[in-house]
Amino acid sequence: MYDLPPDLDRLRTLHTWYAMWLGRIDQAIKQAEEEQKAQELKAQRKAAATPDWVVELDRGTHNPYADVHTGNCHMIGKRWKAITREQAAQLINQGGTPCTHCRPDTELGILE
Length: 112
Prior knowledge:
3 helices, rod-shaped
């Protein structure tokens, strides 16, 4: 043991110092693990909450106004409603506007 002091008092001081730091490091690890777990849970909830099909809602009435999207489209506005595959196809067939970015009409197999 060439890098440690030879006397008991300084050895005990070093032991106390490093035990304190080890406790702080353990606490930081625990906190980082909890944050990582929370982020993973948030991502899982978001993935589970993403619908397959979405129709945007009118600002005033909150009624569908026929802009149809796939659930993961980045162009979906703040006001939307989850719909089924059949409802999405029906809206598009009745003249609804399919999003030009996510192309729900292509995914639904609707050819114009």
